[in-house]
């Protein structure tokens, strides 16, 4: 018995890659491709049990509500969600007519990136020092990356919970700002280099030893194993889940 | 209230470093230093609650039994233990007069090395490919390192449990053996380079993405945070525990 | 004044990428695209000063002779050349009617790969230890890569010239072959990992220090800067040149 | 025939390590150890052909002049030299009575660090992007390191000479300064991590490819091969030479 899947935003760059990935995945069957102009209802969804939304911030929330109403579990890769929007989805899912439906919204589907963040937080409490270096292509407009900020926050929270002192740093002179950004006490550095895509390195240090956790995303295909995993697992979740971690059971 | 500590093998390279580390650690008090020729009994242990044994394979088992008899919890860094010797310690600890005593034997106290192994096993099931590269000083007589073999076995076990297919490898021609050792289906490479101490890199790959976990031990001091952690936690364990993982609660 | 360029094998994967790169390069003008079935002569070359051949081993030698006869300088990226074929090109270029013509044949146009090899050979004589690790996608059928073998040979030659002793290696036990291939005395390791393309790392070690030179080729576009450089410089060469190094003036 | 060597500052940390290294080096003979309070003259230098000065900024210039007067060639590892002090040494060496004497002053004797700088400058003109990441122990008071600044300047100079455009960087938002220091147009990042000593990584990028040059100094012994090389070669130089590069013939 395959899981039947609909892709919303099927004509976009990510959406079309998702369609390919679903078609190639064992145990999944692509039954509908919807894009701008298509109505999201039972008729157009072709009996899909799971819908994957890779559209745009302006429509993704309405899509999710409509997909739940049509009886789908939903996996969302579109960005731009706010806490208020999450809350509205939670309320929508709490209604009796949505019983058994689940929605998974993930800002990042790259397994190695999600794992790096999770492993770094796990390891952080055992180390005196921790810093984050993210490296991206030079066309990126913001620094540091959202993933790097989230990674630093996760490390800082783990350190705080373990009662660690601030990271040691004797720097007295840094006229040009070489020590980078400081996010919750953790230094974060952003490299921009032609040829790169999306990379992150977490370095953790103790007297005489270092632990390095590095993730490299070389292209868009790196998101597909995470999307496929989410499609397979979303049916086991309940209500709203944010972040891929939940289905990675870590 | 400090934890009182005795060091057995206190005159050796590791033992003397342990003495220093205990003296500097907050909440620990060094109350006895024993070495060759010293009797291990209540009198000479100076009221130690925990004893740390860094001696030699020929005497460590007898030391552990004597230390348990003297009422100590024991942390052991000496190598050369066999499964039969573990069993004899288990039986010794199961006797009514040893009630409440615990023994922790760890082949490796470097937190980053133990973590790398544990994190690699955790991440392995999400990746199609996995290989291990270990790098050591050129005076090491065996290859690959015991840690690399253990890491490969941990990865292989995690893959098997997740039902993964063998790692992909189209190699048809490898006249000189460049693909390295194969341990439980995982390729392991050993580099020997002047200037290095003990290092290990685990590389995990999926289409379009890579996760790298690397550990560097630069010198003997890298074992001390693990020893101190073990001294602090051994009292919470029961019976015999093998491996530092247990006290890292991961 | 632009340099006018013809691409031979213009419909192939590499050829079509070269066409794009030439069109986008400042100071270069694409004047002819030839492929299977097109005659290589003055008429079809559209006045090209430089021709770039990315065809197949079976026809590239005949193409080069025809291009020289048509008055072009030639840049060749096709593989499969033998020393005998090189010699026939040298003789062809030595004829009076070929005066001023030049041919550059390069097995690898990735600047970073060519540089890594050259820099490693330059640095090698200052280090006691040296090893090579190459990493590729798991569909590669041979190990180690030709580039890694060439790199190891270059390092070995530089060490021999400097009178260095063999690399130190105390390994006595290596049942599974973890120490990898030995090429001219240099250990070479081959990793095969899904997600990777073509990568090489040279590690050089002395007491207390390490130098690492690493090259990553993420995709086919990595060859274009080298091709464009060759097109710009081939006119300054004389006769036959093998390898991109010559135009990199290193 | 050995080269006879005197060490000035022989009781200091670096000086005593130099004494050991000279004693172990083939073809070198340690004939004098001078320190605070010893007069630098022919009598106390024991016939040394080469003197190595690892003292302190306040006395090194006077030492060098006295050593030249005593007929020695001089290798200097003490820091704190100014351009004016260099000029006074040049004038001192230009006098007829100093004919044939040479002085080599090097801010850094770690071969891998000097090589990394030199190789990075050599490679820089072939790449669209370049950044520098230096990593040190957390007790260092200044950031970025002098070596990183020198490396960035060397890269910038090579790019300028090759007529390269500024490095691409679309960053519009960097509230926390994650993009680091900018030295002559090259971004420099400084990491401070317990367990590290002195490390530097230069990353160079083009479409689809990356070249990385990394140097690791694990301890003080890493300076000795450079010092020994300088002692062997200083006699072949003339006048004043600044930087180890000259004797590395690169």
UniProtKB/TrEMBL annotation, chains A, B, C, D:
Residues 3-109 form the Dihydrodipicolinate reductase N-terminal domain. It catalyses: (S)-2,3,4,5-tetrahydrodipicolinate + NADP(+) + H2O = (2S,4S)-4-hydroxy-2,3,4,5-tetrahydrodipicolinate + NADPH + H(+); (S)-2,3,4,5-tetrahydrodipicolinate + NAD(+) + H2O = (2S,4S)-4-hydroxy-2,3,4,5-tetrahydrodipicolinate + NADH + H(+). It is found in: Cytoplasm. Gene3D superfamilies: Dihydrodipicolinate Reductase, domain 2, NAD(P)-binding Rossmann-like Domain. Keywords: Amino-acid biosynthesis, Cytoplasm, Diaminopimelate biosynthesis, Lysine biosynthesis, NAD, NADP, Oxidoreductase. It is an enzyme of class 1 (oxidoreductase). Pfam families: DapB_C, DapB_N. Pathway: Amino-acid biosynthesis; L-lysine biosynthesis via DAP pathway; (S)-tetrahydrodipicolinate from L-aspartate: step 4/4. NAD(+) binds at residues 9-14, 35, 77-79, 106-109. Its EC number is 1.17.1.8. InterPro entries: DapB_C, DapB_N, DapB_N_CS, DHDPR_bac, NAD(P)-bd_dom_sf. It comes from the Bacteria. GO terms for molecular function: 4-hydroxy-tetrahydrodipicolinate reductase. The active site is at residues 136, 140. The keyword Metal-binding does not apply. The keyword NADP applies. Residues 113-235 form the Dihydrodipicolinate reductase C-terminal domain. Catalyzes the conversion of 4-hydroxy-tetrahydrodipicolinate (HTPA) to tetrahydrodipicolinate. Belongs to the DapB family. Homotetramer. This is 4-hydroxy-tetrahydrodipicolinate reductase. It comes from Actinomyces lilanjuaniae.
